[in-house]
Amino acid sequence: MNDAATEFQKTKELTDKYLLDLYSRYPVAFRYGVNELLFDQDNKQYIDFLCGVAVTNLGHSDPDIIEVIRNQADKLMHTSNWFYSEEASKLAELLILNTFPGKVFLCNSGTEATEAAFKLARRYAEQKQIGDPIIISLQKSFHGRSVSGISLTGQSKIHSGFGKLLEGIEYVQPNSEEELVAAFERYAGRVVAFFAEPILGESGIIPLTHGFMNLARELTTENDALLILDEIQTGFGRTGTMFAFETYGFSPDAMTLAKGLGSGFPIGALIVAEKFEKVLGPGTHGTTFGGNHLAASVAYETVRAIQTRDLLSNVNSCSDIAISRLHQMQQKLKLIKEIRGKGLHIGVELTIPSRQVAESCLNKGLIVNATAETVIRVMPPLTISAKYLNEGLDILESVLTEFQNEQK
Ligand SMILES: *Cc1c(COP(=O)(O)O)cnc(C)c1O
Question: Could you mention a single GO BP entry for this protein (predicted)?
Fold first, then answer.
C-alpha cells in the first residue's frame, strides 16, 4: 500500500472504532476542495454534485468566505445572545429584506429551525386556547432528526424504534388537494399549522404544485393557521430564485432555513412573519451558540455573495444545460424514468437502485447523492462552471449507459 492508502486505512479504522455507526459511508476521505472540485487522499479529483447535501452552495474554499472567517475569528467568535451583536443584527436585516416582513431566530441547524417552528405552532395553539391542536404535514416529507423533527417527518422508516412520537400531527399526500381539504374539515377549529417543503428533497425531489400551495395558503388563512415552509434545502438560490416560495405569489407565515446559509459553517434560522412575531416571547425559546459572531458574519457574506455575484443567473443557465442533457439521456436510456426539479435541485428517478449508480459515479470522479432508493440527486454548487457541469454529466451518462447495457 502507498502512504495515502495507509493513511486512509487509519482514518477508516479510527472511524469504525470511535464514531457511532450511523451512516453508510463511501470509502473516500476528502482532503481539500476548490469550488466544484474535491480531492481525496490520493489527490484524485471529483466533481461535486452533492455540495455536502446542498450546503456548500458557493463551492469549496471560496476566497471571500475564507477572508470573512479569518477576519471575524481574529476579532471575536462567540459572546452570548444576552448581548447585542452587530453581525447577528445585520444578518437578520438581510434575511428579512430578502423574504417577508417579520423577525428572525438564529440557531445552528435545520433540525433546530424545525424545533423552533414546532414550538411556534404549539405556542400559537396555546394563545388561541386550542387544547388539542393539529399540525398538518406531508407524507414523504423530511424535517430533521430530533423528536419534533421526526414527528413532523412523514416517513415510517424514520419514525420506527423511538416509541411514541409527538401527538397532534397528521400527514396528507403531497399534492393531494382532496386530502388537504379533508384534513382541514376533519379537524375544523383545531388546525394550527401546515408544514411543507416546497420541493420534497430527501424523498427524491418532489415539487409541490402551485395549485396545492395556493390551496394550502387559502385553507391556512381561512382557519387562522400558520403556513410554515421548510426551505432548509431549497433556500439560498438552489432552485433558481433566492427562495422557492418566491414563485408562489404569496409568502409563508414562517420559514425554516439552514444548509446553504452558512457555506458549510453550521447555522440555521426561523423567520416569523410580522403577524406572528410576538407568539414566541421573552424566555420561551433560546440557544447558546445560535447566530454567534462568526456564524452570522459567514452567513451574511454567503447571502451577499449570491446577490452581488449574480449567481442566480448561473444557476438558471446551468439548470437549462443539465435538464436538457438529462432529457437527451432519457431518450437513449430506458432506465431513466423521470427527471424532476428546478434550478440546480434536480432528481433523476431510475428504474434501478440508485446507490450502485452513485458508487460507480464516485469511482469515476463524480459525487452524486442516492436517495429514496431509486433517485439520483444533481445538486452542484451555484458557482459551477459549464465545463465541469458537462464533465460531471458525461460521467453520469457513461455510468448510466453501462447499467443500461448490463440490463439488456
Ligand atoms: C437537511 C434538512 C433538514 C434537517 O437539517 P439538519 O441541519 O440536518 O438538522 C430539515 N429539513 C429539510 C428539508 C432538510 O433538507
Answer: L-arginine biosynthetic process
Q: Say how far apart CA 203 and CA 375 lie, in whole Å.
A: 8
Same domain, yes or no, for 136 and 251?
yes
pLDDT at residue 101 tops 90: yes
Q: State how many domains the chain has.
A: 2
**Quick one: pLDDT at residue 70?**
98
What atom in ligand 1 is closest to the CA of residue 197?
Answer: 13
Average pLDDT for 28-42: 96
Residue nearest to atom 11 of ligand 1 (CA): 143
- Beta bridge pairs of residue 366: 47
Atom of ligand 1 nearest to the CA of 146: 9
The pTM (predicted TM-score) of the whole model is 0.97
Supply the pLDDT for residue 399: 98
Q: Residues 234-246: pLDDT tens digits?
A: 999 999 999 999 9
Same-domain status, 126 and 253? yes
- Given ligand 1 and candidates 142, 229, 255, 369, which is best to mutate, with the most ligand atoms within 8 Å of its CB? 142
Of all atoms in ligand 1, which is nearest to the CA of residue 259? 7
Residues whose CB is less than 8 angstroms from the CB of residue 132 and which lie 6 or more positions away in sequence, other chains included: 168, 190
CA 269–ligand 1 middle distance (angstroms): 12
Which one of 293, 309, 325 terminates a domain? 309
Q: Which domain holds residue 151?
A: 76-309
Compute the distance from residue 233 Cα to the ligand 1 centre, in Å. Answer: 7
